[in-house]
Specification:
It comes from Sinorhizobium medicae (strain WSM419) (Ensifer medicae). The chain is built from 12 helices and 10 strands. By secondary structure, it is of the alpha/beta class. The protein has an 8-stranded mixed barrel, surrounded by 4 helices. α3 packs parallel to α5. It is globular. It binds ligand C2E and calcium ion (CA) (3 copies). The site of ligand C2E has 23 residues, from β2, α2 and β6.
Length: about 270
């Protein structure tokens, strides 16, 4: 038993080592990825439930690694945050997303996710202002999605930054609503333009009673606070029916479309499919 225990330990050790090595390799590869144009943005539509038209597209980052193929953001964004690479990547993607959105019809906005790490860098407001001015995009058509982590640490400083961003004329959305510890409290500290209910609450609809109660409550809350209400992760007609009857403004999910490359999403918008 003893020797097999040690064997297990060694196996674990080897696995850990491989994981560390992969982590390290990704860090190194990421240094050149931006210059080598390996990052791209895919866009997923948010559909307005009243007009049934696309009101916004969320920019979602993809890494097309020359050897490993497409890498999901959940795999590489934490590493980019750890090394600080997310700051430069974030500036690139703000430019790219605004340039792209300027080519869409005026009714279509673009949403960009901001990492809490970007708030630690002094040039965040400047980077957003630059992206707006070089693309000539109407600031009201740029939505910045933040999670409550941004308000959790350095909340005073970050609140000021949010206000500075707001003064540029952009919209601020609270993302992943309901997944954190005190999402509710944060609604009081900053007047968000939009709340996005996390897909975790939609996944077990229509049957999950708790999720249903929460989705209902958030719809009411958002409406009485005058915020646009959005639900992400809608995959079925049943889920859509609930979200619709609760009076949400927008939905996002595979039921309407997966995230698509810029050329494809632009074609769908131009053809009036979305
Ligand atoms: P998120 O901001 O909550 O984005 C929504 C995620 O849900 C996306 O995953 C999207 O593809 C996925 N999704 C959308 N509809 C459905 C659906 O109907 N069913 C299911 N199962 N999933 C759906 P993705 O693209 O893998 O992104 C994961 C996360 O990575 C994002 O979560 C966001 O936190 C982060 N991320 C993505 N792009 C960026 C970026 O440009 N900057 C930063 N800072 N974070 C990003
Ligand atoms: Ca998001
Ligand atoms: Ca989200
Ligand atoms: Ca989410």
């Amino acid at each position: 038993a003893k020797s097999s225990g040690r064997g297990t330990y060694r196996l674990f050790d080897v696995a850990m080592h491989a994981q560390l090595q992969a982590h390290q390799q990704m860090k190194v590869a990421m240094r050149d990825a931006l210059a080598n144009r390996e990052f791209e943005l895919h866009y997923q539509p948010l559909v307005n439930l009243e007009s049934r038209c696309v009101s916004c597209c969320e920019a979602l980052l993809r890494w097309r690694h020359p050897q490993r193929g497409m890498i999901a953001p959940s795999e590489f964004i934490p590493i980019a945050e750890e090394t600080g690479a997310i700051v430069l990547i974030g500036e690139w993607l703000l430019d790219e997303a605004c340039r792209q959105a300027a080519r869409w019809p005026e009714r279509v906005s673009v949403a960009v996710n901001l990492s809490p790490v970007q708030f630690k860098h002094r040039n965040l407001v400047g980077a957003v202002a630059n992206a707006l001015s070089s693309s000539h995009l109407d600031p009201a058509r740029l939505q910045l999605e933040i999670t409550e982590t941004v308000l959790l640490d350095e909340s005073e400083h970050n609140l000021e930054l949010l206000q500075d961003l707001r003064r540029l004329g952009v919209k601020i959305a609270m993302d992943d609503f309901g997944t954190g510890y005190s999402s509710l409290g944060y609604l009081r500290s900053f007047p968000f333009d939009k709340i996005k209910v996390d897909q975790a609450f939609v996944r077990d609809l229509p049957h999950g009673r708790e999720s249903l109660a929460i989705v209902k409550a958030v719809a009411g809350l958002g409406q009485s606070l005058g915020m646009t209400t959005t639900v992400e992760g809608v995959e079925t007609e049943d889920q859509l029916a609930i979200v619709n009857s609760e009076g949400f403004d927008e939905v996002q999910g595979y039921l309407f479309s997966r995230p698509l490359p810029a050329a494809e999403i632009s074609r769908l918008i131009a053809d009036g499919v979305l």
